[in-house]
Amino acid sequence: MTTTSAGMQNPVEQYLRMDRIPHIWCPGCGIGTTVNCFARALDDSGLNLRNLAIVSGIGCTGRVAGYLNFDSFHTTHGRALPFATGLKLANPELKVVVYSGDGDLIAIGGNHFIHAARRNLDVTVICVNNFNYAMTGGQVAPTTPQNAVGTTAPLGVVERPFNLPFLADSCGAVYVARWTAFHVRQLSKAMTEALRKDGFSFIEVIAPCPTLYERRNRLGTSLERMEWYRDNTVIKNGADTRECDITFQDQIVCGKFVDRERENLIEATRAKQEAARTR
Amino acid sequence: MSNNGKAELTGALYIDGDHAAAEGAIAAGCNFVAGYPITPSTEIVERIAARFPGTGGTFIQMEDEIASSIAIQGAVWGGAKAMTVSSGPGISLMMEHIGLAAMAEVPCVFVNVQRGGPSTGLPTLPAQADMMQARWGSHGDYEIIALCPNSPQECFDLIIQAFNLSEQYRVPVMFMMDESIGHMTERVVIPPYREIPIVPRKFTARPPGQYKPYEPEDDTLVPALTKAGQGHNVHITGLTHDERGYPVMNAVAQDKLIRRLVGKIRNNVHRIIDVRADGLEGADVVVLSYGITSRVAMRAVRMARERGLKVGCLRLVIVWPFPEQVIRELAERVKVMIMPEINMGQMVLEVERCAAGHCRVVSVPHAGGTVHDPTTIFHTIMEAAG
Known about the structure:
heterodimer, A: Rossmann fold, 8-stranded mixed β-sheet, two-stranded antiparallel sheet, 34% helix, B: alpha/beta, 2 domains, 13 helices, globular
């Protein structure tokens, strides 16, 4: 996210709060890459961006809201989705995007995640999954693959991690995709598609945390990680989300897994009220 | 409940405090409620759920109280007037978001129909034991406003005031009912809505680029609001922030922000407080009370007056901010202040602090589950009058 030389402007600058740059993310962090993809997706989405609102929780990805030059809300840990629920219901004209991390959305916010998906709240959820709590120094998360280490599991994780696409799918999300920070074109396209859906759309982005997760697990530099993503991801559009588990240093299934229609919460509420009026 | 499809209910109703609070919120213009079932507050959300389709409001039953307490804040940034409703355990879960509402200056109302605690306690029986929690429950330094109704009529009247105060000062307002008031059925008169004074939200007139969500535009310390979708591109955070809403991590920014957040209430205590005095002239003994206990206290005071004693009564209708100056001045004039409350002695600590040794302060604690026996308060009065 740097300005290029002599009068040239980075095309995503218009969407950033340039008065807040430089950002706080580490060199090699994948979050900035996802923001770049998101900015390009906004260009392609055809949305009225005046009505766009970004809601984040707490954590490294939770800082995304603070760098995007839209109505943006940096809420409490895990609670971006219930905040977004109130925001969207109070003004259905808004396009609400929840942009947060795996610990925020799936651990402390896991209950809100399944309920927002179940309700088919019309929001786009972008979950940057770096497999650990990075803001607090690299603790393990419910997404950390088994046997990977973190400061709170120095011998390696014994718990089975969540399979996020399966979780979102089984709760009724209308759009589910997973990409890595290497797959910038596919990710940007997925974001555009998700933004155009009228319902709970979910994208998991696997992203490197070179300072903590990659370093502690001796997975190399961020560049080496990009090469690893390139060589060890399998693109399976339409894959059965039950088969999208992530195991430590094994292949990662990417692609668009779910794209379907379902009456969203606001549509269903309006239909019920209309039926009551004409009864 | 039946409302005959009417958005506005006007006239005399025979309803309980929970229902009256719901009607008051509607009359105040509340159009977003998020809640979660919990005794003894559930009737409020049930009435809201039944009434909102007719008034154009949005009700959602969230997955828990944590979600409810932040959904209402999302709704405020979407332009709504919002409240949530709960009781002890649920209110405890909401504490982090009361802090967020104070920090991000989100006008909203938290209704607490108090029941016996701690923990699950006495779900169906009254207490007034959340009074200090209402003031101090979230972490950090902040100020809130709390009101204590003592009848279904006041549940209607004062919740309107709760919304008005939240808009005027951009703070979360705690509406401190209790199980007795919530489930007490009395006559409630609802005036025509046009006769009800409503404090409208102070929206900024500044265009995009010139509006700062945390810069007061006048001398009140209270910044004007906006809502999402106006082109203002606001950034709102629970982090310490500057006038633009941008995070600033240092002691200077913290000092400036916290002094303003606290100052907007502390500088206006004299405008906010509401105390109701009865028979203070020449009284050496005064009974202080709030909420349901004020009705029991009045009975005890009448019993003492029938014996020829000059006993005063002072009821705190707004308990937070605490009416420090009123209590200080009173302490210099009387010999004894008696405070019954349905807790083991909470607000009496504030009374003692303000009395500062100028008079004797006697607590009449009650662990909860019912209201005081008026004779207990009466005997305390008689002993104090000695």
